[in-house]
Amino acid sequence: MPDAAVAPSPQAAQPALLAGSGLPDFAAISPEQVRQHIPELLESLEAELIALEAQLQHTLDSEEPLAWDTVMDPLQRLEERLRWSWGVVSHLNGVCNSPELREAHASQQAAVVAFGNRSGQSRVLYQVLRRLQKQGGLDGTQQRILTAELRAMELRGVGLEGEKQEAFNAASQELAELSTRFGNQVLDATNAWTLLLRDPADVAGLPESMRQLLAEAARQAGEEEASAEAGPWLLGLDFPRYGPFLQYSERRDLRERLYRAFVSRASGAGEGGDNGPLIERILTLRQEQAARLGYSHWAALSLASKMAESEQQVETLLEELRAAAHPAAQRELQELRDCAAAAGAPEAAELQPWDVSFWAERLRRQRFGLDSEALRPWFPLPRVLDGLFALCDRLFGVRIEAADGEAPIWHRDVRFFRVCDGSDGRPLAAFYLDPYSRPGSKRGGAWMDECLVRHRAADGNPVLPVAYLICNQSPPVGESPSLMTFQEVETLFHEFGHGLHHMLTTVERPQAAGINNVEWDAVELPSQFMENWCYDRATLLGMARHWQSGEPLPEHEFAKLLAARTFMAGAATLRQVHFALTDLRLHSQWRPELGITPEQLRRQIARTTTVLDPLPEDAMLCSFSHIFAGGYSAGYYSYKWAEVLSADAFGAFEEVGLENEEAIRATGRRFRDTVLSEGGSRHPTEVFTSFRGRAPSSEALIRHSGLVAAS
Ligand SMILES: [Zn+2]
């Protein structure tokens, strides 16, 4: 029987989209409902917000003391109703897309965002929240929720007055426009460059799937006769074509043309707009915005809401990684030269950037002979799930059981599971798993999203968390189950880590439960932590069994997987350090008065963070959409930061001995009681320290990457 907390809402009179609690009745939600009921919902929330503001203004004026229950709880319930309804719409838009639903989603998005801005910029709420903070008497979780809420409001300029606020709003507007233009110009430049290949010699070395992709692109461009075997093939700069072409093409001249076009995108060299001037303008505006809000630079503003305490702390970490990766990257480059020389390639003596992927792929094949397709029969989904659930039982003491049929679903392939405490059987959470790709109706990639967040309902009953886990792996074919690549297994473990973070929280306040209120640079800790277990002997060999014969994965294949994990890790680490350091220093050190361009600053950084100098026309910044068109400004370092945490957390298990069953269980319980349980209720440094007994160290990540720390 489904328990009341996660059963579909009994309020039959309500339209399904406005139920606002319980598991959504997915099948009953139509694009028409979205168009009709989202505006209704926003209208009623707006009215309630106005009423709440009036009531709070009254309390402010009367100088009566404020109470959390009369401020934060009603506000949270208001936000939760929007999160619930819009969350379902966004979810369905991702997993059951149709032109009608996409259109309905797009038609409401601006209004939903506007409502968020409206409450986030409410001066009354801001004053109330500040007074609540000043009054004191709050517990640690409440303080953290309030601090984060106030900071988010301040970063929207709510604390500014008069001219300063006008200037702030104008700059925010301009920054939003510049970001959009930056991103569009990268897209346009990426799409503008193509090269039609007609000679079969032009596609020498490309695998069949790659030739199919290029022929399909040619067909879409009007070459109706194009075929994988006979061509023509259309090359382009989008990653699915660019990456594999550099990796596999035996035509060095074409790799060079492709590479040069790629690194000079949106720099004014080719077609389309030049992002160079936009970069200087964006950096200047961000610097001014930071100053208006009282920060010394944009990086300080970005770090104010992150786990990292200062740009110095980030610099220190990046330098540790750089010092370990740089000599390794140099050695790796020499190995590629040797590999090219052994093959009699004339470029061996002077390897260029467009040669690196190609020789790395050759060396990879020589060394490991890894064929990702060939391992699929050892990873049927049902066995992988058994292995994953057994690991969760072993580490965290939770039992996971299929409960298909107990919950409404959005597609027949979707599974539903319940999570219980292993010791007393108490229900803890539930999750949906939507494992297979569905081209045309399901967004690519993999993700975890919140269906229900842990909290206490208005009637005082606990509501247990429910997660959406979405993957895009190969569907079953005929009689065979879904047979996964090792990479798909890692992806499932990764998303499951996010899911555990959401589901095993014990925080009762939804604003800080699970992944909520967790600093952005710490949120990947549980997910990347789980990936480590795919390389753990007992876990991997326990679950990898041939779907027909039941044979375990051969020992030598496991050894190859382990060795391949660190292949070219020096170059990969160094590349991330180069991006992260460039991003950080552009947002902390660069000023127009410095007398050098952002690109020149990047080239200074490149001297110690690359092993092949950037080409003269290399204008990487002009296509660095992460930081100029996305949300990663002064935050690109987060990738490596979170990896340090996850590797170091796994290091705790290595220290007690991965074969030491009792110690592994104890360490796993401690991980559950800290990292997975405390969510955003405490600062991530405290959470990490209470698990690890000390502050994070980069030692484990450097070791796992096959690198050696510089002394
Ligand atoms: Zn993730």
Q: What can you tell me about this protein's structure?
A:
With 711 residues, the chain is of the alpha+beta class. The protein has four domains: 4-159, Neurolysin, domain 3 (Orthogonal Bundle), CATH 1.10.1370.40; 193-263, no CATH class; 276-374 and 568-636, Neurolysin, domain 3, CATH 1.10.1370.10; 376-548, Neurolysin, domain 3, CATH 1.10.1370. Helices cover 55% and strands 7% of the residues. The protein has 25 helices and nine strands. The chain has helices at 31-62, 68-95, 99-120, 123-135, 140-155, 162-192, 208-220, 239-248, 252-263, 276-292, 298-303, 311-342, 353-368, 381-396, 486-503, 525-532, 537-543, 555-565, 569-586, 598-609, 625-628, 638-656, 661-678, 684-692, 699-704, and strands spanning 194-197, 233-236, 398-402, 415-421, 427-436, 447-452, 455-456, 462-463, 466-473. Strands 3-4-5-9-6 form a five-stranded mixed sheet, sandwiched between helices. A two-stranded antiparallel ribbon has the order 1-2. A hairpin with a 5-residue loop joins β4 and β5. α8 (239-248) crosses α13 (353-368) and α12 (311-342) runs antiparallel to α19. The longest helix is centred in the N-terminal third of the chain and has 32 residues, at 31-62. It is globular, with a radius of gyration of 27 Å. The N and C termini lie far apart (60 Å). Residues 1-11 have low confidence and may be disordered.
